[in-house]
């Protein structure tokens, strides 16, 4: 009967073979300490036994590499110079995942921009894109949805997932026609193209697209037309008469005047005449305002206010710049509040009418702060009113040692849950109020530019700074920065 050859006492594969798995778990390196393998029979079968004992999936083992390693080990053991050295072999490999391609959206129309004030206080109108008009059949956008990656396998046979890809989606509104075509730059891939189904105005976000045809009114808006509520752009050849209600989700273009205070515009308002109010009601504009003059009106404008001639007896809240462009333009007997800057020719009048300019102030955040502060007080009172009931419930629970029927348990739980929920709401609101407290102010440099004269009776405000004009001041720029004690005043120099 044959016997298995006796192994050398030094032969210890458990100590001589070590397996190192890479961080990405896609390769296994076998480290061999030859000193522990001397005197033994090292073959690929022995190596496989130890490799498989580590949990490496058999399909991931490189059999040829294992056989080659066994031969190299045997050869090294016979070489006295190498018998105590250490060898390394890559003996298993996973399949790396194939990364995908990110998707993308490309628009083929310009996006609107705001007016930019130059350092000298003048307005740069050249970089303003008016509301985007498109024609039927115009290409609006191209969408590539991306190519997902392919799953790999690690050395244990487990899946290795590719990185997620960006898969943009384009939500289509009305009058947008899709078309699937081959990508000209990569014909093996398909892209989607989108075209305007009608002529009109394109409305877009980063992931939505719609085209609305314009509403053209060849008369004034008043009794003859009834009130107007339209989702797109409106062009009016006449005037918006007093008492008319206009709700325009797009831009509103008026050839005459705006004489009604019940006007809401979702984008830009452009008035070739002027805005004439009765000192009541508020005209709200989400975009920019362009007009010749404003008289006895109250306006809230989220963009820039561009006025050619004058503002008289009005109040304007603006989140952009207020720019009076005319050489003799003036702000008289009015109060204007701008989050950015104000530039004009004359501030106030020789009649010394009260005229106030405030810059760097976000009126909407201030309102939210006031509303939030009032709500904080209300919530505090509501929580305080519940405390006696909470205390009473705790006493009952202690007295009964928690032995309550299910109905009372549920009732007490509902009280505690309501209290906890209201407490969390209070803390969130408190944090938001603190955020709004600083968000009321513009943290960037803002300017007041007077190209001609500021008259006594005018006041310029910035945060806690109040500058009252007590004698005529001519051609100056006031630069305001956060945390300054006094505004820097420099001479105004007209750009050539």
Automatic annotation (TrEMBL):
This protein's UniProt keywords: Coiled coil
Record domain Flagellar Assembly Protein A N-terminal region: where: 20-176
InterPro entries on file: FapA, FapA_b_solenoid, FapA_N
Top-rank taxon: Bacteria
Coiled-coil stretches noted in the UniProt entry, renumbered to this chain: 390-439
The protein, known as: DUF342 domain-containing protein
Organism the protein comes from: Leptospira ognonensis
């Amino acid at each position: 009967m044959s016997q298995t050859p006796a192994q050398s006492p030094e032969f210890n594969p458990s100590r001589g073979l070590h397996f190192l798995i890479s961080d990405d778990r896609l390769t296994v390196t076998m480290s061999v300490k030859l000193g522990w393998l001397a005197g033994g029979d090292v073959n690929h079968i022995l190596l496989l036994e130890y490799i498989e004992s580590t949990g490496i999936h058999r399909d991931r083992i490189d059999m040829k590499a294992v056989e080659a390693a066994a031969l190299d080990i045997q050869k090294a053991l016979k070489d006295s110079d190498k018998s105590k050295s250490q060898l390394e072999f890559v003996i298993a490999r996973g399949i790396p995942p194939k990364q995908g391609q990110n998707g993308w959206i490309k628009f083929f129309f310009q996006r609107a921009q705001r007016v930019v004030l130059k350092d000298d206080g003048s307005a740069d109108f050249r970089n303003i894109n008016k509301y985007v008009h498109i024609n039927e059949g115009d290409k609006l956008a191209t969408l590539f949805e991306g190519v997902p990656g392919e799953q790999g396998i690690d050395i244990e046979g487990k899946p290795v997932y590719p990185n997620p890809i960006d898969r943009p989606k384009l939500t289509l509104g009305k009058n947008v026609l899709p078309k699937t075509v081959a990508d000209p730059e990569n014909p093996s891939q398909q892209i989607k193209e989108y075209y305007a189904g009608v002529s009109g105005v394109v409305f877009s976000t980063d992931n939505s697209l719609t085209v609305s045809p314009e509403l053209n009114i060849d008369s004034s808006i008043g009794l003859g037309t009834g009130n107007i509520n339209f989702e797109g752009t409106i062009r009016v050849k006449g005037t918006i008469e007093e008492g008319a209600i206009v709700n325009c989700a797009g831009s509103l273009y008026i050839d005459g005047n705006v004489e009604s205070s019940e006007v809401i515009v979702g984008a830009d308002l452009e008035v070739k005449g002027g805005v004439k109010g009765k000192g009541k009601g508020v005209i709200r504009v989400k975009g920019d305002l362009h007009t010749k003059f404003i008289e006895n009106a109250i306006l809230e404008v989220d963009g820039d206010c561009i006025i050619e001639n004058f503002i008289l007896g009005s109040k304007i809240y603006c989140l952009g710049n207020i720019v009076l462009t005319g050489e003799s333009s003036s702000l008289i007997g009015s109060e204007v509040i701008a989050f950015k800057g104000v530039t004009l020719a004359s501030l106030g009048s020789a009649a010394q009418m009260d005229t106030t300019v405030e810059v760097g102030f976000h009126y909407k955040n201030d309102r939210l702060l006031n509303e939030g502060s009032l709500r904080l007080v209300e919530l505090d009172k509501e929580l305080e009113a519940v405390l006696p009931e909470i205390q009473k419930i705790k006493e009952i629970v202690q007295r009964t040692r928690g032995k309550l029927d299910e109905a009372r348990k549920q009732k007490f739980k509902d009280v505690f849950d309501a209290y906890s929920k209201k407490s969390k709401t209070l803390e969130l609101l408190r944090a938001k109020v603190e955020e709004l407290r600083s968000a009321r102010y513009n943290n960037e440099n803002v300017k007041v530019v007077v190209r001609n004269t500021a008259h006594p009776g005018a006041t310029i405000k910035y945060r806690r700074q109040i500058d009252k004009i007590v004698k005529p001041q001519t051609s100056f720029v006031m630069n305001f920065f956060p945390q300054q004690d006094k505004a820097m005043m420099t001479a105004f120099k007209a750009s050539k």
